[in-house]
Amino acid sequence: MLKLLKRYSRLFLVSWAPRYQGQWHGFSLQRLLVMLVFWPSFLLVQAINGIGLGLDYLLFPGFRRVSVREPLFVIGVPRSGTTFLHRLLAMDSRFTTTALWELLFAPSITQRYFWTGMARLDKWLGRPGARLVCWLERRLLSGLDGVHKTGLLDPEEDYLGLIPVWGCFLLVLVVPVPSLWQLTFLDRDGSADEKQRLMQSYRRFVQRHLYFHGQGKTLLSKNPSFTPWMETLAEAFPDARFIGCLRSPTAAVPSQVNSILIGARLFDGRDTTAYWREGFLAMLEYYYLHLIEVAEQMPQQRRALSVMETLVRAPSDTVLGFYRRFGWQADAHFCEQLQEQDRKAKQYRSGHHYSLDALGVSDDELLQRFGWVYERFGFIKPDG
């Protein structure tokens, strides 16, 4: 606890005027205003969550004995269909997955029982609270629809559950420091103590989730940010299965750089494009390499690859192929839902188009860093 408080204090101080590419650029008025809103809200939520997590040991001590059996991790390169695949799989009743509201406002069992109780009361009163929450949700989250459409009830990435222990890479937008960047190379660069700390925290998080939602369920986790954690996760959960998602670098790389720049502009009004571009190019290069290297070391019945270009054309066949690989049987209802997704896939057209030049990523650099990906998976190469 003392170490965590020291980390919070250090990151709090650094966040007001962070260094980009090793240089201090002075204070930004926009960042100052954002931090004045962010830190009080963040610390208040974390304090409430901390109380809830502590009460779990008193009110629900049995959660520590919950077994985590055969979890499924959807990982891979960001912007490569992980969200789409996650939500397809989440339709199967065998799985339980985390919703955004649980991750942000109810990581503890205590809070989940409290808020579900409040929801029942609200329903009895005619749902005035639900209508207010829906209104606020659309006002606050609709701006993210172009990058990552989500809602409080939607399945979401459970690495957000590691925010209290600063194990969530997304916090790098708030505090761009090496200790958070290191999370994107955890298997390679993380110390044994750091890996153990994160896995202990994550296991407790999963145990709480299964305790609340049903110990007979299988955890479905979707986190591109867990791609550089594959070896660590495989060791911590020896019976886990992994689906790694891939996409042509021509589409995945600019899409990811663009999405992070949207967040960066929110937190800091200055032009930090070069910092994020270089950081994410190095990160994505490692993701592609690490995903394939680790997957090839695993037994075939524990891993599979999903290519987005194939997934969006034939979601049903793709998912059922994974089930055959893992020795699972899909029930009739789930198969019907997958067939409906096939019909929707025929009408899907992506509205996202990004200029490599505008992001400072050249065709030559893509070929230099990711040439082997184009060759191995038959992706169309950029004109470079």
Automatic annotation (TrEMBL):
Keyword terms: Membrane, Transmembrane, Transmembrane helix
Domain of life: Bacteria
Transmembrane regions: 32-55
Database matches in Pfam families: Sulfotransfer_3
InterPro entries per record: P-loop_NTPase (IPR027417), Stf3_sulfotransferase (IPR052736)
Record PANTHER family: OMEGA-HYDROXY-BETA-DIHYDROMENAQUINONE-9 SULFOTRANSFERASE STF3 (PTHR36451:SF1), PAPS-DEPENDENT SULFOTRANSFERASE STF3 (PTHR36451)
Name by which UniProt lists this protein: Sulfotransferase
